[in-house]
Specification:
The complex is a heterodimer of chains A (about 120) and B (about 230). With about 120 residues, chain A is mostly helical. Chain A has helices at about 5-25, 30-50, 50-60, 65-105. In chain A, helix 1 (about 5-25) runs antiparallel to helix 2 (about 30-50).
Chain lengths: ~120, ~230
């Protein structure tokens, strides 16, 4: 194994260990936790045996292992961007609703409310 | 005092305002002389916009933070509907609209011909001192709206419009910022609301052009509208 593989496998192993400890501690394995554990396991296997990625890429007709990684990273980036944009929009709507509620409930009219007497 | 002729039916004028301390008094004074129900929404202004409303006979609402003109309009529309408005008119705070257009604008609604009346500066020679670049951008906006929302209008970003109570309740503005104008048209088409365009005057003074939307913002507005449609 080269230096990069040592560093990467150390990082992945620690992350996998943290996920496993958390899963055992909570005594409940959700779909998201299972997915994260699967990602770390696949990462560990491909770091230890990079030839596997190339073989898989050839099997599905892509050719190089590096290309399959580029595709996966690109698709993940796009999906993540949309996910966070959608979360941002939802948060913005919640802030808007709250602001609107305050504005309507604190509406002032000089003839019917105490706007002039406000500090 | 508001005249009897113009105070019926229950018409509410919604005026969104952001940093308009210098002009809001004059705009609102012109409105209250004709209409008793005026609601101004200060959209988190940093100047004295809200304070300058204190002695005017209008409802003053304040957003604690700046959200955008679309959000301010929806706040004003919600408030007007709660107060029993039968017709809601949206009116820009910067003085570019003519208060005398309102009576003609609400006529299609009060007569029952339409649920929404849209002001248009392109039906006749109703745009005073409009720069050519602005005219081109607005025409491109019309084309964009016809393609995206499939609604046949001559002016897409005119702040002077009137909604029946039914339309004001059904239309929900989610685009907080300037893309709300396209969103309203999109919803009119989607909800199948009957609409009419009414010729109105828009005055382009130096102050209006300085503070108003820059031509370069058109692309941003279009992108916001399309993204808003994709991610709901």
């Amino acid at each position: 194994m080269n230096l990069f593989q040592w560093v990467a496998i150390l990082f992945v192993s620690v992350s996998l260990l943290v996920e496993l400890v958390r899963a055992i501690h909570s005594r409940r394995l959700s779909w998201t936790k299972s997915f994260r554990i699967l990602i770390w396991l696949v990462a560990a296997i491909t770091i230890l045996n990079p030839e596997l990625v190339t073989r898989f890429a050839r099997t599905i007709g892509i050719g190089r292992g590096a290309d399959i990684l580029i595709y996966v990273v690109t698709l993940t980036f796009i999906a993540t961007t949309f996910y966070f944009y959608s979360r941002y929009m939802r948060l913005q709507r919640q802030i808007t609703d709250l602001t609107r509620y305050l504005a309507i409930h604190e509406a002032k009219h000089p003839e019917t409310s105490s706007a002039d007497r406000d500090p | 005092m508001p005249s009897e002729a113009t105070s019926r039916p229950n018409i509410w004028i919604v005026v969104p305002a952001y940093n308009e301390a210098a002009r809001i008094g004059r705009t609102v004074q012109g409105l209250v002389n004709h209409f008793p129900n005026v609601v101004v929404i200060d959209d988190g202004s940093q100047d004295a916009t809200f304070d300058s409303l204190k002695h005017l006979p209008v409802w003053a609402l304040r957003h604690p933070i700046n959200l955008g003109q679309g959000a301010a309009l929806q706040t004003g529309i919600d408030f007007a509907v709660r107060q029993g408005a039968e017709v809601v008119v949206t009116f820009d705070a910067d003085g570019q609209h003519d208060v005398h257009d309102i009576q003609r604008l609400v006529e299609p609604i009060t007569s029952g011909r339409a649920e929404v009346a849209l002001g248009s500066r392109f039906l006749g020679s109703e745009a005073v001192n409009m720069p050519t670049s602005r005219r081109v951008i607005l025409k491109l906006g019309v084309l964009f709206t016809r393609v995206c929302s499939r609604i046949n209008v001559t002016d897409t970003h005119n702040g002077l419009r009137a909604l029946s109570r039914k339309a004001a309740t059904k239309i929900r503005i989610h685009q907080n910022r300037m893309a709300h104008a396209s969103e309203i048209l999109d919803q009119i088409q989607y909800l199948g609301l009957k609409f009419e365009e009414v010729p109105v005057t828009v005055h382009y003074t130096n102050a209006v052009l300085e503070k108003g939307q820059q031509n370069s913002a058109a692309v941003k507005v279009a992108a916001q509208f399309l993204l808003g449609r994709m991610v709901r």
